[in-house]
Amino acid sequence: MNRAIRSLLIVGGAYVAAQMLADIASLRIIDVGGSAVDAGTLIYPFTFTLRDLVHKIAGKSAARILIFLAAGINVFMAGFFWLVARLPPDSFTGPQLEFGVALSPVWGIVVASIVAEVISELIDTEAYQRWVSRFGERHQWGRVMVSNAVAIPVDSAVFVGLATLFGVFPSQVAWSILWVNVVFKGLVTLVSIPWIYLVDPEPLSGTT
Questions:
Q1: What is the pLDDT of residues 12-66, one digit of tens each?
Q2: Does residue 206 surpass a pLDDT of 50?
Q3: Which residue in 38, 49, 152, 179 could disulfide with 192, CB within 3.0 to 4.6 Å?
Q4: What is the pLDDT of residues 146-185, one digit of tens each?
Q5: Smallest Cα–Cα separation from 45: which of 200, 194, 183?
Q6: CB-based contact 111:166 (threshold 8 Å)
Q7: 193 vs 16, 43, 101, 114, 144, CA distance in Å?
Q8: How many Å from the N-terminal Cα to the C-terminal Cα in the chain?
Q9: Within a domain: 208
Q10: Maximum distance among all alpha carbons in the chain?
């Protein structure tokens, strides 16, 4: 298999998996150092840099397709969990209420998460592309830092704003989640910057 295709499959699969895990984990609000934060924040920030890797390997169009693909998969996942939680349980096995308690979607969080993901990742795509258009293959670290720095505050603000609007959590919890999200995602960006050097620049011909 072509090295570029193998890299794209690995990075793209990791992106979709991280998006799914983050959306599931976001159903739980945890305490981190005395501050409330949705548990999806523990893994979701890595998706920004994974998106950057896809962009570098396959171009802007591929990155945009992956963003919408992940969103569609997450919508389907939420609907599937909702359906399974409402199907009649096997009478011999028992009610199995734990599944519904753990995985039945909170639609306010689902909508807030997916809308925030799509908007922020598209912004990340545009910021990344503008950096590449200006600097080419120079300063690749800047692609990750600048695109993430623009997209992360938007992502957190949209998610928290919509979740609060839908009444998922009170305003004091919303502010806690907002600032913790931005800080943690910023730290993840710094840690993940070296990843951009792990893949070859635009090895797939005909990508834009």
A1: 999 999 999 998 998 888 888 887 788 888 999 999 999 999 999 999 999 999 9
A2: no
A3: 49
A4: 999 999 999 999 998 998 888 887 877 788 888 888 999 9
A5: 183
A6: yes
A7: 19, 16, 37, 24, 6
A8: 22
A9: no
A10: 65
Residue 206 domain flag: no
Q: Where are the alpha helices (DSSP H) in the chain?
A: 3-25, 46-58, 60-86, 97-103, 107-135, 140-165, 171-192
Task: Show the domain range for 26.
Answer: 3-197
Give the span between the Cα atoms of 98 and 187, in whole angstroms: 34
Which residue is it, tokens 């120079």?
138
Dihedral in degrees, nearest 10, Cα atoms 170, 175, 181, 182 = 160
Over residues 108-114, mean pLDDT: 91
Residue 28 in any domain: the answer is yes
The model carries a pTM of: 0.87
